[in-house]
Amino acid sequence: MWNIKYIWGTAALGWCLIIAAATRMTFFTGSSTERMFTNPFLDAAVVNFFLRKSVHLAAFGLLAVLCWLALQGASLRFIKAWALAAGYGLIDEWHQSFMPERTALFTDVLINAAGAAAALLAVGLVLFIRRRQNKKRLFT
Q1: Which of 60, 59, 63, 45 shows the shortest CA–CA distance to 9?
Q2: Helix, strand or coil for residue 52?
Q3: I need a surface site. Which of 20, 31, 81, 86 has the fewest CB within 10 A?
């Protein structure tokens, strides 16, 4: 039987492969996605910008949570999970620098790292709230 850490580690690795595959698809370039939002009511460039940056936040936030789950029992678990997700965000942008239809941006590296941090902060907050609720139940 597989240890649960290996399952989460495999999921994190799989998510990295999905991110890498999406990076290679020309469908996901900025100019391609902007065409989807062309309409008379909204500025397509603005909608596209915020949607694309939200995808960075979510993708690397999910990666950070998967890494955190894979690191069960590790010391400095939150920091290691953030470093793995942010590091992969850096590698992903570096990878894009070799692709002619893509642009590698340092701001995207920062957004990837921020998404990882935000997701891990949310996990930490949920754990904190659960612990407080469990302590209250013990004393009531």
Answers
A1: 63
A2: helix
A3: 31
